[in-house]
Amino acid sequence: MRILITNDDGINAPGLKVLEAIATEIAGPDGEVWTVAPAFEQSGVAHCISYSRPMMMAELGPRRYAAEGSPADCVLAGLGEVLDVHPDLILSGVNRGNNAADNTMYSGTVGAAMEGALQGLPAIALSQFLGPKNLDPDVMFDAAAAWGVRVVKSLIERAPWQETADYRLFYNVNFPPVPAAEVKGIRATSQGWRPKTFFGTEPTTSPSGRRFVWIKGGPQHEPTAPGTDAAANLDGYVSVTPMRCDLTAHDALKDLETALA
Length: 261
Hints:
Blueprint: E1 2-6, H1 14-27, E2 32-38, E3 57-61, E4 64-67, H2 71-82, E5 89-96, H3 108-118, E6 123-128, H4 142-158, E7 170-175, E8 185-188, E9 200-205, E10 211-216, H5 229-234, E11 237-243, H6 253-260
Parallel strand pairs: 1-2, 1-5, 2-4, 5-6, 6-7, 8-11
Antiparallel strand pairs: 3-4, 7-11, 9-10
Helix pairs in contact: 1-4, 2-3
Subcellular location: Cytoplasm
Family: Belongs to the SurE nucleotidase family.
Cofactor: a divalent metal cation
């Protein structure tokens, strides 16, 4: 199996090393793992692409490249410039921090998987929820390292992929904020909503007197509805959420037609 991996935390992020190990085991001794990851951190860029400017790429080693672009850029570069044959699977992560609930919409990790799906390839985003039990760097990615291969193999072998759909499925995986030994299992979930979590701003002034604004996130441990991603994570489960790039609110179409008639 040939696997392309990327992330949004950057080419030197510890979570990417965890993903490399996961991908290597899945690819097998006769497989290939190719890495094309951002040269610098690209958290929060979602599905951004560098449409109006070129990006520099550097070959850092065998099958390992850094690109001065977004995670979606890295997928495009991997498919169009690095690999001579398309991969069998695209993996993105393992992100430092959760990409559940509303975070999904901002996530560069998810954006890379989204681009993979748009290119007609099976793609999975993987993120590690953080909390008091796994903030120590020594255990931060324990859950992802212990459960990553199991989750990805299950998706490859048994999950629906809808290869012929216009907008094919991709998967968003979040590992719970606990050590590996405390993970309870895997749950299929929908995307949740944290009612008290919103991005906002934090003003600051530089030593030279110039005014700047930081973008900051909200509380990450607010409960979401039962059966959703963040709720499962906070209960100790790995969440797996099927997604597609079609943003149409299909449930509202009939009401809209009536309103516009």
